[in-house]
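ok, trying the design again with the full structure, not the truncated one.
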């Protein structure tokens, strides 16, 4: 079919109704396809900038390398659609459904995904810098970093209240991202960069953050029950009122972290570095602090009942008002 510029939407719909689905490379700049039924349509490499696709049905559509900059796709259905390498800069997907959609290497900078459904979507290598995903559902989505192939970038994205349960964010760049109130239960964030990210009130229970960077992050009131945090960096992070009950935190860096009133009951902090951290009024009942570095750590009024401090460095540690009942001290003696 020969390409046409500024094709009339009625003509396109008539062609589609008569079985023509291939519109590869067409110039459809600004076309109005509001509520159109275009299931399995092929818009590969098409120009759909500023197109109106509100409430349209684009299930299984092929939009690889299509230009959808500033297009309006709010409320549209793009389940199983292929948007690989598409330009979706500043596009509006408010309330859209993109379940199982393939968005690998797509440009999603400044795009809006408020309340969108991205369950099980493939987001490897996408650029979500400045995008707004507030309230979106990304359960089971794949944002995994794969060397030299797919590296998801989400610097400064708004992911507040997003449902990211079981999402794979291995190696993702989440620098400065807003994840306040987000649900990351069972998610994988191994080696992710969360420097200066906002994770206040976020749910990260049973989440893997092994070898991740959370330096300077805001984790106030966050829940990380039974999370895997070995070798992660929380230097200068604000972890006030955080719940780390049962967390695995061996070799974690918590230098100068603020952990006032933190719940670390049963947490495993062996060989962790808590130098100059503030754990005043924190609860560390039955916590494992074997061989931890506690130089100038503030444990004032903390509860260290039955905590294991074997071979821990407690030089200049502030234990004023701390409860040490049945704690195992650095020399192996039990405190009574």
């Amino acid at each position: 079919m020969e390409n046409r510029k500024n094709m009339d939407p009625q003509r396109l719909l008539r062609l589609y109704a008569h079985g023509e689905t291939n519109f590869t490379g067409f110039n459809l700049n600004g076309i109005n396809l509001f509520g159109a039924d275009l299931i399995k349509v092929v818009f590969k490499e098409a120009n759909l900038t500023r197109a109106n696709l509100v409430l349209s049905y684009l299930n299984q559509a092929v939009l690889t390398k299509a230009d959808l900059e500033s297009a309006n796709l709010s409320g549209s259905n793009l389940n199983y659609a292929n948007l690989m390498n598409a330009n979706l800069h500043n596009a509006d997907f408010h309330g859209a459904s993109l379940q199982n959609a393939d968005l690998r290497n797509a440009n999603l900078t400044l795009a809006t995904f408020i309340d969108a459904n991205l369950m099980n979507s493939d987001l490897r290598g996408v650029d979500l810098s400045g995008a707004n995903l507030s309230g979106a559902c990304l359960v089971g989505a794949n944002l995994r970093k794969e060397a030299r192939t797919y590296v998801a970038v989400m610097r400064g994205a708004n992911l507040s209240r997003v449902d990211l349960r079981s999402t794979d964010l291995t190696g993702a760049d989440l620098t400065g991202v807003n994840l306040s109130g987000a649900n990351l239960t069972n998610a994988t964030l191994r080696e992710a960069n969360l420097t200066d990210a906002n994770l206040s009130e976020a749910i990260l229970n049973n989440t893997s953050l092994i070898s991740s960077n959370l330096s300077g992050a805001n984790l106030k009131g966050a829940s990380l029950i039974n999370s895997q945090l070995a070798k992660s960096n929380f230097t200068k992070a604000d972890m006030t009122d955080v719940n780390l009950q049962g967390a695995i935190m061996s070799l974690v860096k918590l230098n100068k972290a603020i952990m006032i009133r933190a719940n670390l009951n049963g947490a495993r902090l062996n060989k962790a570095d808590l130098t100059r951290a503030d754990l005043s009024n924190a609860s560390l009942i039955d916590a494992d602090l074997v061989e931890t570095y506690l130089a100038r750590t503030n444990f004032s009024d903390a509860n260290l009942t039955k905590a294991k401090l074997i071979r821990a460095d407690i030089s200049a540690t502030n234990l004023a008002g701390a409860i040490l009942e049945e704690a195992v001290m650095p020399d192996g003696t039990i405190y009574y």
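Keeping the full-length input from now on. The CA atoms of residues 203 and 227 lie 10 Å apart.
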